[in-house]
Write a structure and sequence with these properties.
134 residues, globular
Length: 134
């Protein structure tokens, strides 16, 4: 039994966002005020990249599968699953990034948020739809 495409996309997304996060200082050098908190500068840009990617993916999903606009509960598309898988990978990467670079007492709310969102998205991906309604 091989790995599911969704799981592979989660892992690939995690790795891609991790690489982006590590290479961002070369792509977008931090301004002088951000030099004392370089990881936060990288984290914000990585979050921005995820926002652009997931927003474009959501729009593309509705464009390719307009039935989703009529019924978000019962319909879904491969594009929607891809956006969810990429987002899970991003949230896992961001969780690891915060865990490694910020004190727990400063970030526990966001770490909890990322855990809950990742769990919810993983359950959605597992049942292939909006799981609270099944």
């Amino acid at each position: 039994m091989g790995l599911s495409p969704g799981l592979l996309l989660v892992g690939g997304s995690f790795a891609a966002f991790r690489l982006l996060n590590r290479g961002l200082e070369r792509l977008v050098p931090p301004p002088r005020p951000a030099l004392r908190n370089r990881w936060k500068w990288r984290n914000i840009w990585t979050s921005f990249a995820h926002s652009l990617l997931s927003g474009a993916g959501a729009l593309l999903g509705f464009y390719l599968h307009p039935q989703m606009a009529e019924d978000l509960i019962g319909t879904h598309s491969p594009a929607a699953h891809s956006v969810v898988s990429v987002s899970i990978g991003y949230f896992l990467q961001d969780f690891v990034d915060m865990l490694c670079n910020q004190k727990l007492h400063q970030s526990w709310e966001l770490l909890f948020h990322h855990s809950v969102v990742s769990l919810h998205l993983s359950l959605w991906e597992g049942v292939q739809g909006a799981w609270p309604y099944y």
